[in-house]
Amino acid sequence: MPRLDRPVQFQSGASYGASHVAGDDPSSVAARCQVRRTVETAVHSRPAPLPESSTNSDAAGTVGAAARGKGLGTAAIVARTSHSPEAPTHRTIRGMKSNTSMQDLSVPSVLCPFPVTYDGAAARRADEEIVSWALSLDLFPGQRTELNGYRFGTFAAFTHPDAVDHDHLMLAARNMTALFAADDHYCDEGIEGVHLAASASRLAGSLTAQENGSRLPDCPSIEGFVGSDPVARALRETAEHITRLGTPTQVGRLRHETTATFLAMAAENAWRIAGHAPDPAEYLAHRKYNGAMACLALIDVVGGYELPARDWEEPGVRSLSLAASLMIMLVNDLYSVAKESADIGSHSLPTVLSARHGWSLERSMCATGELHDSLMRAYLRLEPDVARHASPELARYLAGLRHWMRGNLEWHTLTGRHNHRAGRPTPKTGPHGPAHNRIKADVPYSAAAGVCPHCGDRHNPATAVA
What we know:
Elements: H1 13-21, H2 28-33, E1 53-54, H3 63-70, E2 93-94, E3 104-107, E4 110-111, E5 118-119, H4 120-136, H5 152-159, H6 166-188, H7 196-205, H8 220-228, H9 230-245, H10 248-274, H11 280-287, H12 293-296, H13 299-303, H14 309-312, H15 315-336, H16 349-357, H17 361-387, H18 392-414, E6 428-429, E7 435-436
Parallel strand pairs: 3-6, 4-7
Antiparallel strand pairs: 1-5, 2-3
């Protein structure tokens, strides 16, 4: 398979505003958050096939130029967003745990001014192979009739358009599939036999599956656990895969971030067991570690290069990585409210805000979108400073963060994991689609006086930490 490089089109902030303000509804936040009260029935079906490819053609700059050491530059703050490869149509979500439980709510558009870039043929091939791999490991036995529509291979293609080849792309697909499996088998899905009281133990027990290579002998029963548990086998095969393609530093990086992910998962399950409703700040403190960082750790491996440890751990780079991770997880929160099984219960920022403030789910989803956009604006302000003296490897990694944020959003609008599931409502994007490009902040729709713009909570000035 040829390299999957695609140009990213940038334009300066000055020209951007003039081209994009025209035609925007002045009350854009209210418009994209408005409730659609038409009743729609979610149809259980596999999403339509994706087109062969999707990319902009009017290039004003390329990631390739940045990768050659030129950096992203000031003009790289804003990128024109291409048209979605599959325009979202009617995606409804029924209000949950709020006063609007019988209404159809719209998922707000979020700020994500990056192009959609991917290889359609590579996505389809990865979709087919990842389903076969999951079935061979006995993953998701309660969801087998739906597994084809989840499109984990397409997720990998959306988020890693610079993959060296199919083998590297499948590393990303296997890693995210293993993480989804850990979530479903150990934490979230009653249909997969989740036992909350044992979830932390199972997560901790699976850590040994990430150890690959020569080491002192373990008790045979420990390896027996890896062989008998589908999630542990998936993690072990992923560890073997990255060991073959990456360096020891990269292997250790994935192991570290996966361990942090499992710790965050265990914390969420502890809330469920205790019946604890976290406040927004407590929820957000853990959310940035709950899944995405263990995927972002593979950006350089899948791209065929190594981001030096000094760059990975540099404070500015770490800040961008964690911010990207949190925005990725907030998008997941918006689209997964309807998916989470009622028998297990779920935590998401919309449900946390509703519980904290007594807000309707509609208002809490809009507030979540606004928090995402505020974080994205901060990200876009910091990014050029970090990129100014970036090495070629760091420039590619920063481009990879952009691919991940936009690819994640695109996948959430079409995957069968969140759309058209039998017995569960389907999220519906607002009238402006899944993404908008308004860099300038709108007048807050849901925030009120005294509400923190970072977590949506009301802090006591006497005790709040700056």
